[in-house]
Amino acid sequence: MSILFKSSALHLLALGIVFVFAVPSTKRASCTISSYDTDVSDCSLVTISAFTVPDGEVIDWTFADGAEVTMAGNITFEQTSADGPLATFDGDGIIFKGAGYTLDGNGADYWDGEGTNGGVAKPHPFLKITGSGTYTDFTVLNTPAQAVSVGGEGLTLDAITVDNSAGDEDSLGHNTDGFDVSASSITIKNCIVKNQDDCIAINSGSSITFENNQCSGGHGMFVGSIQSGKIVSNVTFSGNEVSNSMYGIRIKVESDADDGASVSGITYSGNTVTGIDKYGVLISQSYPDDFSTPGTGSTISDINFTGEETSVEVTGSSGERLAIDCGNCSGDWDFSELTITGGSAGTMDVDDASISGGSY
Ligand SMILES: *[C@@H]1O[C@H](CO)[C@@H](O)[C@H](O)[C@H]1NC(C)=O
Ligand SMILES: *[C@@H]1O[C@H](CO)[C@@H](O)[C@H](O)[C@H]1NC(C)=O
Ligand SMILES: *[C@@H]1O[C@H](CO)[C@@H](O)[C@H](O)[C@H]1NC(C)=O
Ligand SMILES: *[C@@H]1O[C@H](CO)[C@@H](O)[C@H](O)[C@H]1NC(C)=O
Question: I want to staple 253 with a disulfide (CB 3.0 to 4.6 A). Which of 77, 226, 343, 350 is the partner?
């Protein structure tokens, strides 16, 4: 193509025609941005200065392939009538360095204890990260409802804090999920989530690693809820600490899910779970109920607690250690590195699965 271009250019020059080449603009080396509506698509180096996103507006940035993006100030959101996501970060091979800065959703302006089930309209999710690359070292503070939605393929989220702990006051924060994942080939590690709902909820995807994270105040580590046609496979939860939460570890499929809905290849290793009120570990095909009449149109298989010990401590007096409510589960499940203490024993309906090892 370039040879053709040169020869035709030479040809035109030989004809003595004078003209101006429309040279495509090369990527600007660096851009410093301080507004939600700056076009970042041509910037290979982006520095984000502090700014406020006004009512009714959202951030929707698709960075250039391989862009290096560095925060140099906080991004604060005014109370808004906009729908979520209030910020979207997209692009391939992005290196995003939060440098310890904060995206502040001013959740207290919305919190009324009802989450996304009613009351004040709450834009959600607050932040959506999709595409691929590495996002590190920032805080997502006080989100109206669900905090971070994760999509794409090939993302690593490292050392991100989701802090909705202010929503504990008078139980006003609700549905403040930390990470909602529908993505493949992703790793979430070294993150801290303080909230009132799922620390992580994996809705679909494969090759997902959740490791060395700390979760408190919420609903623990969750695969689900799985809807019709959704598949979750090959997930590892390792080295995480979950404390003071309603559930420790859960897998839940909607009771009416079918059309190939399945959960398989979930491995837990070296997790420490303490202060659980309701269920230490719950595996159920009865969602929205924890335990009732499980559906049979989906499948759960290949669930293991192996590698390093995963310990779970139930403290609620009515809490149950391990409950399984299967309509269609199968295969050999190795629970040899699972230890659960406290509470009472749960009910186990494992259908065709065969569970070996463990203490619960
Ligand atoms: C950024 O926000 C955090 C959290 O609110 C705050 O502690 C910090 O002082 C802010 N930094 C600046 C430079 O405003
Ligand atoms: C399972 O996921 C890991 C990373 O999480 C990946 O390295 C591995 O290739 C995946 N295995 C399969 C069979 O997809
Ligand atoms: C889970 O354990 C079973 C039984 O030992 C084994 O066949 C299976 O490969 C294991 N699955 C994973 C994902 O390690
Ligand atoms: C369990 O799911 C499999 C795969 O979808 C299906 O073939 C089978 O009929 C289901 N079992 C029951 C009892 O419905």
Answer: 226
Whether residue 218 has pLDDT greater than 50: yes
**Exposed/middle/buried for residue 110 (C-beta within 10 Å: 0-12, 13-18, 19+):** buried
The CATH number given to whatever domain includes residue 205 is 2.160.20.10
**Ligand 2, atom 13: closest residue by C-alpha:** 234
Which of the following is catalytic: 11, 124, 174, 219? Answer: 219
Residue 268 lies in a domain: yes
Q: Is the pLDDT of residue 8 over 80?
A: no
Tell me, yes or no, whether 13 lies in a domain.
Answer: no
Record the pTM.
0.92
- For residue 280, pLDDT over 80 is answered with yes
**Which ligand 2 atom minimizes the distance to the CA of 208?**
5
Q: What is the Cα–Cα distance from 203 to 262, expressed in whole angstroms?
A: 11
Q: For residue 3, report the phi and psi dihedrals to the nearest 5 degrees.
A: -65, -45
Is 85 domain-assigned? no
Structural domain that includes position 305 = 198-360
Q: Looking at the 3D structure of the chain, how many domains does it have?
A: 1
Write down the mean pLDDT value for the chain.
Answer: 93
Active site residue 11: no
Residue with tokens 């004078």: 18
